[in-house]
Design a protein that fits this description.
The chain has 490 residues and is of the alpha/beta class. The chain has 13 helices and 17 strands. It has an eight-stranded parallel barrel. A five-stranded antiparallel sheet has the order 10-11-12-17-14, covered by helices on one side. A hairpin with a 4-residue loop joins β15 and β16. Belongs to the glycosyl hydrolase 29 family.
């Protein structure tokens, strides 16, 4: 079982020390810069009630909660109506119902590969405190309860067999306060027998991040041990953290974890990354991530958006509000044009099957990437990300505020002397005008030698003037999906 002395020993012997100066020597993996598209998976005990979202274990204890998430009945009331009073049926009682009897990691990996993903990231532990792996630090895990199977280990093997990178997320930090609404239920959350699942259940105070109040040393040490255990058990290529590690008390432990993780990777000769939100990690020491949001411009350093196929939930829910695959593809293009990656989440059912809606979206994305992936994978950003009226939000949870992409929205990527231009929506006029490539453009001074669709199926007529690059697309069928053009230059 891992301990603090072992962690300190690895840090002491490795190239990275637990301070920002040393960690600033970190370099983003080359494979990550090329990958562009990954799959996130929210699956756990919360998938059993499948109501509202993955915050069900918290909301089921909050009588006055305002979170309804497109449901007619609050999660608190729904729980009573469906399972009985919380003091008689607590969240722990869902665990025996979480059997994962149809979980097929090989089928999952095959689907993700067909979707065009280059990396796969299941949730190792969510806020609820239930680990999806065979941990030596807590019995509240999928190998010892519920499925009685090392879910993470089985999925890792299948994912790597398909040639994709394997990553993990930890949401453990939020367990400090996640069940605070259940502190009035003495036979459940307050029972010390279940403390290993429910955690400290301390009051949630949004000011903790600013004033430094929050987790005690015991909780923070346990957090560090759990994350380092994940590194040693599964050697993930990415470790993703949710937002609450922003709490200032985590800072020494964040540095210690990064040094340990990066040193372990150096021992194996592998390239790894940490995903963080807000300013949890110092600039240049890890990879910045925006939840359900994008950027308005190019970021010189690699970044990532994490979002879900459903608007209202990360986990499977009976009333999930699904996005259109064409919209997700547009977001993928926009993110890549700004030097980012898209981490797209799906939510399997409790039995281990992936809902048909999730699967259909993934396959639609995969079909599009099979034709257009040349302009996505292994590319870099160009001088500008694109043109057109549609702007993205710059903060978390702003994706719903962005308007629909138009036929004037065009995004660029670049690779090996070739410019790729993606028209988010073909215009009904039959003519695409790319104004950034005009003879009078301040961005472009090259000579265009060829213009083709990425599938290369039809010859295109095109001209360049001081107005822009005009492409005759009247021979192309109108489609809800973006259309990619390959532009040769001298």
């Amino acid at each position: 079982m891992i301990n603090i002395n072992q962690i300190n020993e690895v840090i002491g012997k490795g190239p990275f020390q637990d301070n920002w100066e040393s960690l600033s020597r970190y370099s983003v993996p080359s494979w990550y810069k090329k990958a562009k598209f990954g799959i996130f998976i929210h699956w756990g005990v919360y998938s059993v009630p499948a109501y509202g979202n993955e915050w069900y274990p918290r909301e089921m204890y909050l009588k006055d909660s305002a979170r309804r998430d497109r449901q007619d009945v609050s999660m608190f009331d729904y729980h009573i109506q469906t399972y009985g009073p919380q003091h008689e049926f607590g969240y722990k009682d869902f665990i025996p119902m979480f059997k994962a009897e149809k979980f097929d990691p090989v089928a999952w990996a095959s689907l993700f590969s067909r979707a065009g993903a280059r990396y796969v990231m299941p949730v190792a532990e969510h806020h609820d405190g239930f680990q999806m792996y065979d941990s030596q630090l807590s019995p509240w895990n999928a190998a010892k309860m519920g499925p009685q199977r090392d879910i993470i280990g089985a999925l890792k093997e299948a994912v790597q067999e398909k040639g994709m990178k394997f990553a993990l997320s930890s949401h453990r930090a939020e367990n400090w306060w996640f069940y605070d609404g259940g502190m009035t239920f003495h036979s459940d959350v307050q029972d010390d027998s279940f403390r290993g699942l429910y955690g400290p259940a301390q009051p949630r105070d949004p000011e903790w991040t600013i004033h430094g109040e929050g987790p005690d040393e015991a909780f923070l040490t346990d957090w560090l041990l759990r994350t380092c255990e994940l590194v040693d058990l599964y050697q993930p290529s990415i470790v993703w953290f949710d937002w609450w590690i922003m709490n200032v008390r985590f800072k020494p432990y964040l540095k210690k974890f990064a040094a340990y993780y990066y040193n372990r990777a150096a021992e194996r000769g592998t390239e790894v990354a940490i995903n963080y939100k807000l300013d949890a990690y110092m600039h240049g020491t890890a990879v910045f991530d925006i939840e359900r949001g994008q950027l308005n411009g190019i970021r010189p350093e690699l970044w990532q958006t994490d979002t879900s196929v459903a608007r209202n939930s990360w986990s499977h829910s009976v009333n999930n509000q699904y996005k259109e695959p064409a919209d997700i593809i547009c977001d993928l293009i926009d993110i890549v044009s700004k030097n980012g990656c898209l981490l797209l989440n799906v939510g399997p059912k409790a039995d281990g099957t992936i809902p048909q809606e999730d699967e259909s979206i993934l396959l639609a994305i995969g079909n599009w990437l099979a034709v257009n992936g040349e302009g996505i994978y292994d590319t870099t950003h160009w001088k500008i990300y694109g043109e057109g009226p549609t702007q993205s939000g710059e903060e978390m949870h702003t994706e719903g505020k962005r308007g629909a992409y138009t036929d004037e929205d065009i995004r660029f990527t670049f690779k090996e002397g070739t410019l790729y231009a993606f028209v988010m929506k073909l215009p009904p006029s039959g003519t695409v005008m790319i104004r950034s490539l005009s003879t009078s453009s301040r961005h472009f001074r090259s000579v265009i030698t060829s213009v083709n669709t990425l599938d290369g199926s039809l010859p295109l007529d095109w001209t360049v003037s001081d107005e822009g690059l005009r492409i005759d697309v009247s021979s192309l069928a109108l489609t809800p999906y973006p259309t990619g053009f390959k532009i040769g230059m001298e």
